[in-house]
User: What shape does this take?
Amino acid sequence: MKGSSPSQPAPAKGASLTAHVSWLMFAKTMAFAFNLALPMLLVRRLDQAQFGVYKQLFLIIGTSVTVLPLGFAMSAYYFLPREPDRQQETVLNILIYNMVVGCLACGAFLLWPVLLALIFHQPGLTGYAHPIGLVILLWIVSQTLEIIPIAHGEMKMASALIMGVQLTRTAIYLAAVIVFGSVRALLWAAVVQGVLQTGVLWWYLQSRFSGFWQRFDGSLMRSQLSYAVPLGLAGILYTVQTDLHSYFVSNRLGAVAYAIYGVGTVQVPLMGMLQEATNAVVIPRVSALQQQNDTREIIQLMARAMRKLAAVYFPVYALLVVVAHEFIGFLFTRRYLASVPVFLINLTLLLLGILLQDPLFRAYVEQRFFLIRLRVVLCVLLIAGLWFGTTRFGMVGAISAVVLIGVIERIVMAVRFGRVLGVSRKDLVLLKDIGKLAIAAAAAGLVAEGVRLLLRDAKPLVILIICGVVFSLVYLCAVLLAGILTPEEKDLVRRKIAGLLPQT
Assistant: This one.
């Protein structure tokens, strides 16, 4: 049976990281495009107060879905490759755990709707508690729809599911806002999407792990909990670092201010899409290499992953800094130009994103307690920074505190794992291409800024298109002249271009 067959092992050393990441990157890019269409319509259909309420409600949904399961589904990355004879038990345990957590969360909002009023300091939000509870339940149960196919080695299937989920979600949301034009309609659209995702998840699990629902394994559940819970606690602290500022701004400054602040942090999905795809590919590889005690290959793999992230993050950062006003004005209308200072500061997180942490923490599980201690300290510092920053400097103070804490964490973790892996000064040569990419992005940014100054009286869309084209050409030329692309990457690009051209 399919469910009894061994899972595909983590990719071998010689397998292409670029090829695997490119599948997921394509899916994440399409997902980002779908997601971007929704707020563009919402800011035009809803006033700032309504848009702020929408952002608040989906903030609590997103935080709940991320935090409450404690990352238990991520145990699939560890156990599916290492326990080929217990795949069915692994996925059943994940499904059971998520159902229990989802039901508890749903029950909390059904029984105590006042939770929303307490969190956001807005009594009028209690009427949304019931649909929010249902959304959280369904989304927690179905959150493994992307994770398990990746852990099972099915990159193309995972990519198709990612795009399918985002396409249907965007279509359902857009229909709700066009037809009804209300926040409540969006919540019920999210319920419908959750039902659809849960149905697809059941189909996938039954097709790949036939009869999985009959294979509960208590000892494996304990092992998965032992693996996931410490990392999940660290994940909660990380989510506090990434989400707490939004709650501070929303609670202290109100829905309208949070609408502006939410637009200022709009690039977060863009920042996360490539990192998530890279993590999904790198985590199983690092886990397998750690089993073999091959720290040298881990260092080289992490350097290659950072390089690929930098190839996208650096130019995106440079271009968005140049066209920030036009980007915000075109996508969200001039009513939201007040969010530009927040947007520019928040872009710094793109640069920090090249420093991957998850693959190392999930392979070197003994380091998880250090991570927890570090994030406890950082959370305390963040709370103090948000309290002071929001009080004295408003939205700009809040996002500045977040970026500062992010810088501190990445530096500490880089030093920590540098020691664990035995990184030495001679390994700095592995990062030479990252330096070249930074220079290429900076050069392209300077040229694009010159073009933007010449076009300052043009419409935002015209400036975006022309600056984007000029930036891309200069950046690509700089990358080619610097000899950054490997033969494998050149071949992959040629094949992708050939696939787009008509066959003769």
Observations:
- Residues 1-15 have pLDDT under 50 and may be disordered.
